């Protein structure tokens, strides 16, 4: 440093781009320490791979699509995310809610997020056949249908390779264990990664050096 001059590191005024997770207990790390959940693992993977995104975890255990729809407008206004990952519907299915209602709620959430300028990732779910094969099939088909109708990326089944492995599920056989969380993230990552913009995230987090 030259005598008589000072240097200050000023960061770009724009905040880091944000990823909003709107989900239920599967994203809220139910039964686990928060750092064990897949959302915390996602934060670390983004750092490790050079993506400077802020991850907002707005998941609530027990959340339904109606609850998510009610909360989403304020979340969009507050955080202005670039990506919204919607992981909802499982609780609707477990409660036997009418599938047209669940689908309509998910569609409205997708439309709200898209109208805000965000890209959307939809987390697909499957449910046990408690309500019969027709309901179960209609429920699982709802997600790819929404993806096609609204041109959004869909994770086929976020618990793929996990839900049918009792040792990877907690005692309730509904929520995955800590051991399963990296696998859950691996199911999500291939669909989420193509939407990430490394150049933009790095630009927003790069210090700008000014000499006085």
Automatic annotation (TrEMBL):
CDD domains hit by this protein: Lysophospholipase_L1_like
TM annotation in the entry: none
InterPro entries referenced in this protein's UniProt entry, alphabetically: Ester_Hydrolysis_Enzymes, SGNH_hydro, SGNH_hydro_sf
Source domain of life: Bacteria
All copies of domain SGNH hydrolase-type esterase, residue ranges: 21-179
GO molecular function: phosphatidylcholine lysophospholipase activity
Pfam families the UniProt entry points to: Lipase_GDSL_2
PANTHER family registered for this protein in UniProt: THIOESTERASE 1/PROTEASE 1/LYSOPHOSPHOLIPASE L1, THIOESTERASE 1_PROTEASE 1_LYSOPHOSPHOLIPASE L1
This protein's name: Arylesterase
Organism: Terasakiispira papahanaumokuakeensis
